Amino acid sequence: GNSVTQMEGPVTLSEEAFLTINCTYTATGYPSLFWYVQYPGEGLQLLLKATKADDKGSNKGFEATYRKETTSFHLEKGSVQVSDSAVYFCALSARGNAGKSTFGDGTTLTVKP
Amino acid sequence: DTAVSQTPKYLVTQMGNDKSIKCEQNLGHDTMYWYKQDSKKFLKIMFSYNNKELIINETVPNRFSPKSPDKAHLNLHINSLELGDSAVYFCASSLGQNTGELFFGEGSRLTVL
Predict the structure, then answer these.
(1) Rounded to a whole number, what is the distance in Å from the CA of B36 to chain A's nearest CA?
(2) Residue ranges of chain B with per-residue pLDDT less than 50
(3) What's the pLDDT tens digit per position in A10-55?
(4) Which residue of B has its CA nearest to A31?
């Protein structure tokens, strides 16, 4: 079956530090890959996505590249802000799976001023 | 205008009671979902409907019964509540069954005493 493995948290960084949250996946076929962000007290919202190999998704200074050879989709940001403190979820969606997305366990990021 | 809205946002109730959570989406999407998020932030899919038809029914106790009166609404009724049902329940929708990107509501926090 499909699975997503994320870097365990929590992650604590100082403002302006570089962020990497690792994500690797197992899936049959060619899945689409996503990063969702959940701010405190809110629902998940899409941060970025990539639908095919070598695609780079980007939004709000965050980036992730779909690497088929390493089955990875690592999230990066060059300089984090306090407002980036949230839980980040890596997810995949594969055709033929009745629309069921597979989520990682989430990584909690805290950015300190 | 909220895209996916859930009510109520908070429920506090006693063990053994029955409760319902309602969800509506105004995005014109065909597919809707219920997810459960536990205290460790793990997300687990419970149900999915596509055009009012049940397509995903994960291993969920029979006490949980979803109902989709039309494709814009998906409600969740829970009978005989137990302590372990305490969680945040998220409704979500997607354009279609295999389109991947999910739009989440803000969540309904259920506390069973």
Answers:
(1) 12
(2) none
(3) 999 999 999 999 999 999 888 999 999 999 999 999 999 999 999 9
(4) B100
Chain B positions in Cβ-Cβ contact with residue A95 (cut-off 8 Å): 98
- Chain A residues close to B104, C-beta within 8 Å: 36, 43-45
What is chain B's Cα-based Rg? 13
Kindly give the pairing relationship between strand B64-70 and strand B31-37.
unpaired
Contact A33, A92 (CB under 8 A): yes
**pLDDT the model gives residue A98:** 61
What's residue A47's pLDDT? 98
Residue that is written with structure tokens 């029955």 in the block: B18
A65: tokens are 């590249």
Q: How many Cβ pairs closer than 8 A exist between chain A and B?
A: 65
Instruction: Give which of A44, A55, A93, A103 to mutate to test B binding, by max B Cβ within 10 Å.
Output: A44
Query: Angle at CA B23, nearest 5°, toward B17 and B27?
Result: 175
Rounded to whole angstroms, what are the CA distances from A77 to A24, A35, B25?
Answer: 18, 13, 32
